[in-house]
Write a structure and sequence with these properties.
Layout (H helix, E strand, L loop, with lengths): L1 H20 L4 H12 L9 H5 L1 H19 L2 H7 L1 H5 L3 H18 L3 H11 L4 H14 L7 H27 L6 H31 L4 H21 L8 H15 L1 H28 L3 H6 L2 H21 L7 H10 L5 H6 L2 H4 L5 H30 L3 H10 L1
Helix pairs in contact: 1-2, 1-14, 2-14, 2-20, 4-9, 4-12, 4-13, 4-14, 7-8, 7-16, 8-10, 8-20, 9-10, 9-20, 10-11, 11-12, 11-13, 12-13, 12-14, 13-14, 16-17, 16-20, 17-20
């Protein structure tokens, strides 16, 4: 296992930096590292590492979402209002509808199989989007209209919506009935996740003010509570909807609201943790990719992915109707809401494992959606944000001159 970890970190960092120097997203280098080292290529990673891959990826996701919460100003998010709520589910709905329309014709699958496929690839990746939005917030790009906050929050919530739909459609394909209770889990999961997270953040703030603990100790406490929140989600899955990841992010936001100085220091600590967690996350995502399915995929599979992305872009544009965002800013939101990775890696193989006839094609589409959208989406964000978004200092200067 130690040898595997050494390979993951050393090769991931090296190849990531090579791609960065080539002006390409470093995550592409990390994904390729995982593909090469993984069980479907050189098979150099220990089975023990692969067995706990899901948990390790979850830890990495918790780290970046906690950091996001620590810098997320709730006031900025409330300013956005309606679009922030719509971004949580409208683009995903558009993409699923697009899959139901396109996939049966191009791939010869049934409507319910297309719905399953749609839910697998409809979720955007917080692991790709959140670090990019944090970078924009640090550079003050688009922050005058809370654009990075809008995208970051939506990306963190739409996973909940999509996974509930995925579970419902899987049950329907297996002969089960979809009840209203299944869909009721969505708002319950969001509200309960937000509430529990905020309460935890307030309690932590109260505790940190009265107990003398080093920042590194506070990081360990926050991570431990985050792990418990995600564990609670899995434990309550059959009882009530609860979003552990949303609770993690809202806990950080509540802590930031209560203790600004502490949250700034902790955000710095979590940003350092992300250096290693990022490598671990994307290399292990790459290791889940079976290149055989990718090679076997035809042009029609790629056309399906590109086709439903058009539906997603239309969904994002719909969320922006009657907002004060300019056309350039709306275009950036559409670009930023395309990368896929973590959810597709997590659930893409489930239909195949359950023995569904669409299992192979769903896995193929999931793999291709990661390989196409994650690097291209990340690259597009990097090369467009300075052109499409205004830097907040620029806006202040213009307002002052007026």
């Amino acid at each position: 296992m130690l040898f595997s970890l050494a390979l993951i970190f050393l090769c991931g960092l090296i190849l990531g930096s090579v791609f960065q120097k080539l002006k390409l997203p470093n995550l592409l280098g990390m994904l390729i590292t995982g593909i090469v080292l993984g069980p479907y290529a050189l098979n150099l990673l220990s089975p023990n590492i692969l067995a706990i891959s899901t948990d390790l990826r979850q830890i990495a996701l918790i780290i970046i979402l906690t950091r996001a919460g620590l810098v997320l100003d709730i006031k900025d998010l409330l300013k956005v209002g309606r679009p922030a709520i719509l971004m949580c589910f409208v683009p995903a709905c558009f993409e699923i509808i697009g899959m139901i329309i396109i996939a049966p014709k191009l791939l010869g699958i049934s409507v319910i199989e297309a719905a399953i496929m749609g839910t697998v690839i409809a979720a955007v990746s917080p692991a790709v989007i959140v670090p990019k939005m944090l970078k924009l917030m640090e550079g003050r790009y688009g922050t005058n209209k809370s654009i990075p906050q809008l995208i970051m929050a939506g990306a963190s919530v739409d996973d909940v919506f999509v996974i509930v739909l995925f579970t419902a459609f899987i049950g329907l394909a297996g002969g089960a009935q979809i009840s209203a209770l299944s869909f009721a889990k969505i708002p319950v999961a969001i509200i309960l996740g937000l509430t529990v997270g905020v309460v935890c953040g307030i309690v932590l703030s109260f505790f940190f003010k009265r107990a003398h603990i080093r920042d590194s100790g506070k990081v360990i406490i926050i991570l431990s509570i985050s792990f418990l929140l995600v564990t609670i989600e899995h434990s309550l899955n059959d009882i009530v909807g609860f979003s552990g990841l949303l609770a993690v992010m809202s806990m950080g936001a509540a802590l930031q609201k209560q203790s600004l100085e502490v949250s700034k220091r902790l955000s710095g600590k979590f940003s350092k943790l992300w250096v290693g967690a990022e490598v671990l996350l994307f290399v292990l995502v790459g290791a889940t990719i079976n290149i055989k399915y990718t090679i076997a995929a035809g042009v029609s599979t790629i056309l399906v992915i590109l086709g439903v992305l058009i539906f997603r872009v239309l969904g994002v544009y719909t969320c922006m109707i009657k907002t004060k965002l300019s056309q350039k800013e709306r275009a950036f939101c559409m670009i930023a809401y395309t990368p896929k990775a973590t959810v597709q890696a997590a659930i893409g193989s489930i239909p195949l494992a359950l023995g569904l006839s669409c299992g192979n094609i769903v896995l193929t589409v999931a793999v291709l959606s990661i390989l196409i959208t994650a690097p291209i989406g990340a690259f597009a964000i990097d090369i467009t944000y300075k052109k499409l978004l205004k830097k907040e200092e620029d806006c202040v200067d213009k307002n002052t001159s007026l």
